């Protein structure tokens, strides 16, 4: 049994999902998932299941209907992790590294306490966004921009 996410974590996940969902749906780009969806990386004994707080899978990477019954055997194009005060920094760093090595193209790490988002791209680029900026998804979701003042509003 897993410990449930805090309501604060759920609030930020809902806000990001609410921003991503219409953008993705209006352009038929793929699927936005929340509630810690499971993605199976690897196969056989080395398989591991990872569950970001929010994820986006591009239409061309969506698994077939048969493969959607369990954990999806694909890496999401975007994985979002919302940091809780109890999350150890070294574990978070390892998680980001694992996502990127498994084929995730972009990882957003949301820091509610400092009201910042750090974006890790597959090419090694790291960008930090603060509350006064627009959060962008680069080539993963071209043209997407979300004012972080809305994410971090009281």
Would you give an account of this structure?
This protein is α+β, with helices and mostly antiparallel strands and 154 residues long. It has a single domain, classed as tt1808, chain A, CATH 3.90.1570.10. It is built from 3 helices and 10 strands, in the order H-E-E-E-E-E-H-E-E-E-E-E-H. The strands form 3 sheets. Strands 1-4-5-6-7-8 form a 6-stranded mixed sheet, with helices on both faces. Strands 2-3 form a two-stranded antiparallel sheet. It has a two-stranded antiparallel sheet with strand order 9-10. A hairpin with an 8-residue loop joins strand 9 and strand 10. The longest helix is centred in the N-terminal third of the chain and has 21 residues. The mean pLDDT is 83.
């Amino acid at each position: 049994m897993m410990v449930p996410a805090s309501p604060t974590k759920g609030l930020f996940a809902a806000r990001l999902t609410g921003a991503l969902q219409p953008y993705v749906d209006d352009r038929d780009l793929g699927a936005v998932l929340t509630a810690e969806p499971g993605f199976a990386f690897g196969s056989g004994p080395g398989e591991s299941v990872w569950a970001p707080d929010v994820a986006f899978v591009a239409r061309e990477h969506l698994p077939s209907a048969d493969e959607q019954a369990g954990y999806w055997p694909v890496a999401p194009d975007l994985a979002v992790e919302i940091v809780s005060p109890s999350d150890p920094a070294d574990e978070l760093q390892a998680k980001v590294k694992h996502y990127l090595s498994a084929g995730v193209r972009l990882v957003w790490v949301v820091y509610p306490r400092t009201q910042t988002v750090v974006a890790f791209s597959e090419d090694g680029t790291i960008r930090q966004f603060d509350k006064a900026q627009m959060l962008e998804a680069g080539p993963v979701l071209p043209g997407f921009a979300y004012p972080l003042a809305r994410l971090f509003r009281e």
